[in-house]
Amino acid sequence: MDVRALSQVTVLGADGAQVRLGSAWSDRPAVVVWLRHFGCLFCREQAAEMRDRRAEIESMGGRLVFVGNGGVRYARAFQTEFAPDVTVLTDPELRSYRAIGARHGVLNTIGPRAWAAGIRALRSGARQTRVKGHPFQQGAVMVFAPGDRLLYSYISRAAGDHPPLDQVMAALGSASERRAAGF
Predict the structure, then answer these.
(1) Can you tell me the distance from the alpha carbon of 72 to that of 91, in angstroms, rounded to the nearest whole number?
(2) What are phi and psi of 124, to 5 degrees?
(3) 121-142 burial by CB neighbour count: b if 16+ within 10 A, else e?
(4) Rounded distance between C-alpha atoms, residue 76 and residue 83, angstroms
(5) Structural domains in the chain?
(6) How far apart are CA 140 and CA 32, in angstroms?
(7) Sheet architecture: strand order including 30-34
(8) Confidence of residue 138 (pLDDT cuts 50, 70, 90)
(9) pLDDT value, residue 112
(10) Angstrom distance (rounded) from CA 129 to CA 154
(11) Which of 6, 151, 162, 164 has the fewest Cβ atoms surrounding its Cβ within 10 A?
(12) CA separation for the pair 81, 101 (Å, rounded)
């Protein structure tokens, strides 16, 4: 993946303004979570998990960013309900999803791997609403640092496939350590 090219991709903020994606990590590390779509129960589950770690992310000098792919009104509603103090962006044209190599397809969405994840998400209280973006798009989680450095990458194999949060936090911690050492 070409992180410099990814950083130049233009997406939209929840307010509809154009945003260069790389601005999310230009001045400090960022944990960027690509959502399947804004109505996805797995994404709501993941947003709650990540939001629970937001204070820790910020204490390590990072920021949390969600990228979805539905319309601006869906991004705004998602931000209001699930991530009020977090940057929420949307990429309706899926340019950033293609740049990171995110998977898509029917079998990745409703196949056997998604069933167990669906039960887990329902037990956590997440609920599916109508589709608010591309229904067969899969997500990812990446940690970036200034200078367009990729510190961690997890491309979801199927709906509900989330990375271990300890791995994400360890990658962010390595960025914090490097910053403290003057790198």
Answers:
(1) 9
(2) -80, -5
(3) beeeebeeeeebbbbbbbbbbb
(4) 10
(5) 1-31+55-70+81-100+127-183 (3.40.30.10)
(6) 8
(7) 18-20, 10-13, 87-90, 63-68, 30-34, 140-145, 149-155
(8) confident
(9) 59
(10) 25
(11) 164
(12) 28
Which residue type does 148 have? D
Contact 97, 91 (CB under 8 A): yes
Chain centroid offset of residue 87 CA: 10
Output the six-digit token pair for 167: 């791995």
- 22-66 per-position pLDDT tens digit: 999 999 999 999 998 888 777 888 899 999 999 999 999 999 999
pLDDT digits (tens, 9 = 90+) for 63-89: 999 999 999 999 999 999 999 999 999
* Rg, Å, the chain Cα set: 15
Per-residue pLDDT band at 119 (split at 50, 70, 90):
low
- The two most distant CA atoms of the chain are separated, in Å, by 47
